[in-house]
Design goal:
This is Mercuric reductase. Its cofactor is FAD. Helices cover about 30% and strands about 20% of the residues. It is built from 14 helices and 24 strands.
Length: about 475
């Protein structure tokens, strides 16, 4: 007879969101069961941000060696051993893995079941030889790469963002399908490591990011030799002699052509890992507008009141920090009841290219839709920031959107360490700060944090003159 577990919370999936939810629940004293069928840590650790950043670090080092003359140093063409680079990437992942190991969760008091979860009815999940009847369930099953329906793709070998880190040789020419953040981050890294790279996207690369910011990164990548083909549709993929791959494309203008590649990487969108859960048995409905997504309320609850979803399983923002925020916001509400609002606009959006792109808050189209013309955009060129110029990274822009009172609605940065700087603006948004608050804090000099202070000062400088301030100045002129 199967064991029946009755915890306060059952979490299906031990990726970033599932692990964050488990730790948050244990901190509240809840009894927690986690079900994971594969690797602990999910995509963020094993095939996402961690390995991509480790690969990019190797590429950045090679680029610095190759372009050292801009700092007055002798240039040197690096010897690149892709097998060694990817071995180092995997060692970084292995070094972090103990932080998310089953043993660590067990030490926290979490019971981990290594099995595949299936819903048996509206309140029971089966996992191996055990049944789980929790008071509440969280679906945190993550996502996997979407393989596009391209004629001929199934007949040639291809890589995904989960297998690219196992290459042992440098591609003679790498073709990447998808101008996503992951696609462009990997494209830049491999180009800096000496491989010719072409990126193909049927629409606009980095379509989710403000075009003014995107243009900064795309210009840099193209300058470094990445061939980025936007508005270009792949019509067919064909195999050739010696393992060569031909990618036949048709652009918005011009004649169709065939791009030759030795390796093909699929870096298009991802979709939620919800297949095989037997959702219908639990009374969990699919989004009628998108069969790859769950139907969720604004509070991330499914059509079954006992079940919630977080992370990539929601089909929404696919970042580790967003998943952790969802987990922490949801767990307290699910277990204790007091309202805890999940506010997506407070979650930074980052593209880890060089230069980095980062946004937080509302975008200009969103503000325009809500407020019409009742907003202001303040811009700052990074060429005016001394630290950026000293580092040879003065190409970039920071832009801040405010309402008529000066309250910050959204911020975007394209430039060095944008992913770090955006945290300051995320804090400002969470606390409903204004441009005047930014102008009034003290930033060290020379530091990139000065960008926040300068944006606030520029906003005040370009604002309409306060009539009371003008009167006070006139009065002071009459005083001795």
């Amino acid at each position: 007879m199967a064991d029946i577990l009755k915890p306060d919370l059952c979490i299906i999936g031990a990726g970033s969101s599932g692990l964050a939810a488990a730790e948050a629940a244990r901190a509240l004293g809840a009894r927690v069961v986690v079900i994971e069928r594969a690797r602990m840590g999910g995509d963020g650790l094993n095939a996402g941000g961690v390995p991509t950043r480790a690969l990019a670090a190797a590429g950045r080092t090679a680029h610095t060696m190759r372009t050292a003359a801009r700092f007055g140093l002798a240039e040197r063409e690096p010897h690149v051993d892709i097998a060694a680079v990817n071995a180092r990437v995997r060692s970084v992942v292995a070094g972090i893995a103990p932080e998310v190991a089953r043993e660590r969760l067990a030490a926290l008091g979490v019971e981990v079941i290594a099995a595949e979860a299936r819903f048996l009815d509206r309140r029971t999940v089966g996992a191996g030889e055990k049944l789980v009847r929790a008071r509440r369930f969280i679906i945190a099953t993550g996502s996997r790469p979407t393989i596009p329906a391209i004629p001929g793709l199934a007949d040639v070998p291809f890589l995904t963002t989960e297998t690219i880190f196992h290459l042992t040789e440098r591609p003679r020419r790498l073709a990447i399908v998808g101008g996503t953040s992951a696609g462009l981050e990997i494209a830049q890294a491999y180009r800096r490591l000496g491989a010719p790279v072409v990126v193909i996207d049927a629409g606009r690369a980095l379509a989710e990011i403000d075009p003014e910011l995107t243009s900064v990164a795309l210009t840099a990548l193209r300058t470094q030799g990445v061939d980025i083909r936007e508005q270009t549709r792949i019509t067919e993929i064909v195999g050739g002699e010696g393992g060569a791959i031909g990618v036949r494309v048709a652009g918005a203008e011009g004649q169709p052509q065939t791009l030759e590649a030795s390796h093909l990487l699929i870096a298009s969108d991802r979709h939620a890992n919800i297949d095989g859960l037997d959702l219908a048995k639990a009374g969990i409905r699919i989004d009628p507008r998108d069969a790859s997504r769950l139907r969720l309320s604004a509070g991330l609850r499914t059509s079954n009141r006992r079940f919630y979803a977080i992370g990539d399983a929601t089909g929404g923002s696919q970042s580790t920090h967003a998943a952790r925020y969802q987990a922490q916001s949801l767990v307290r509400r699910v277990l204790l009841g007091p309202p805890a609002r999940y506010q997506p606009s407070l979650v930074p959006r980052v593209v880890w290219t060089d230069p980095e792109l980062a946004e937080v808050g509302l975008t200009e189209p969103q503000v325009r839709a809500r407020r019409g013309t009742a907003y202001r955009v303040t811009r700052l060129s990074l060429a005016e920031v001394d630290r950026a110029s000293a580092q040879g990274e003065g190409r970039g822009v920071a832009r801040m959107i405010t309402d008529p009172s000066g309250r910050i609605l959204g911020v975007g940065i394209a430039g060095p360490q944008a992913g770090e700087l955006i945290s300051l603006f995320a804090l400002a948004l969470a606390n409903r700060l204004s441009a005047r608050d930014l102008a009034g804090f003290v930033a060290p000099y020379p530091a990139l944090g000065e960008i926040a202070q300068r944006l606030g000062q520029e906003h005040l400088r370009s604002a309409d003159t306060d009539p009371w301030q003008a009167r006070r100045l006139a009065l002071n002129r009459l005083l001795p």
